Amino acid sequence: MLDCAIIGGGPAGLTAGLYTTRGGLENVTMYEKGMPGGQITQSSEIENYPGVTGEISGMDLMIPWPEQCQKFGLKHAMVEVTRVTKEGDVFKIHTNDGKVDEARSVIIGTGSRPRRAGFAGEDEFFGRGVSTCATCDGFFYKNKEVAVVGGGDTALEEALYLAKICAKVYLIHRRDTFRSAPNTVERVKRTANIELVLNSVPDEVYGDKMGVNGLKVKNKDGAIRDIVVPGVFTFVGNDVNNQTLIQEDGSFLCDMNSAGEVIVDISMKTSVPGLFATGDMRIAAPKQVVSAAGDGAVAALQAISYVDELLNH
Ligand code: FAD
Ligand code: NAP
Fold first, then answer.
1. Among residues 186, 209, 234, which one ends one of the domains?
2. pTM score, two decimals?
3. What angle do CA 15, 20, 26 make, to 5 degrees?
4. I need a labelling partner for 204 at 20 to 30 A (CA). Which of 93, 152, 256, 304 fits?
């Protein structure tokens, strides 16, 4: 029986792993379906993690985190969790290799995933010219022109990254003001090879069997503009990964809000004793590496108290 099962190995899960093991829990496993590090590993540059100065990629930021946890005894199961259930005081961790592990407490931090914008051709050309990862695919468009869709921090930061590689970046946003941080907006406006295409939404991405040839965008006034590019990057927000909390009857294991985010209190406690939710998947998440890591630490301290209470009182 595990003292604690941690689901997800992003900044939240890894920090929970560090604090639970270092804080005295004996038997803790972190379940991560891919390489640990989480979605920040897709970011070309992070400049708001406290104490880390200079240019650093998300990948480089995250590389030391698993090693630090393993030093204190965190075990890593490289497997996908399909469902978390609870029977009495025991949580059951169902994994896609058919196994079921048991745990006294669970800290979940499965994060979020990129949303599709929903324009014609987006799914058809996904992976063949339509992408949600500039770090992964930007290099394919070296010295070529690309389009970026979105007006949040991700879209603008990735547009800046792409502007260093590509000949030109068309930034397509459906309004004329941005959700992104003001200093990022200023940097974008100062970048000569970024053209703002405002009050416009993608109408259709088109191409052939080789991939994308262009993107038609529709302005608020109804005018259609044809932007001839081989690459389209969409950064239109994220959906929460809450699937593991769905029970056999379709209900959720704990209370959720209407957006599918887990309802927690300031201790990361959910409506189910012993279950803690952290990072991007919880209500009112600032969706930052530092806050996800903070949630992981808070949840870990609570999990330690919970297990102690369960075993000794
Ligand atoms: P995630 O990082 O999403 O990690 C969740 C982990 O859970 C993943 O590794 C996933 O593989 C795993 N997982 C999911 N489901 C399962 C399952 N069923 N079984 C096993 N494992 C599972 N934040 C900043 O502070 N500064 C920035 O500059 C910044 N830039 C960003 C740039 C980009 C391109 C993106 C996408 C995000 C950026 N963010 C930034 C936001 C930041 O990455 C997130 O807020 C943070 O990673 C959330 O951490 P998390 O641990 O909650 O979730
Ligand atoms: P976001 O903030 O939700 O922004 C999504 C953007 O896409 C918005 O501008 C939105 O337009 C637009 N959009 C949504 N659906 C669309 C559609 N169907 N068609 C066209 N446009 C559409 O998402 P994000 O930029 O990925 O950021 C997610 C979170 O991570 C945020 O909290 C962000 O602050 C954080 N983050 C932080 C950093 C950083 O701190 N440096 C970096 C990256 C991400 P509207 O504006 O009109 O709604």
1. 234
2. 0.83
3. 140
4. 152
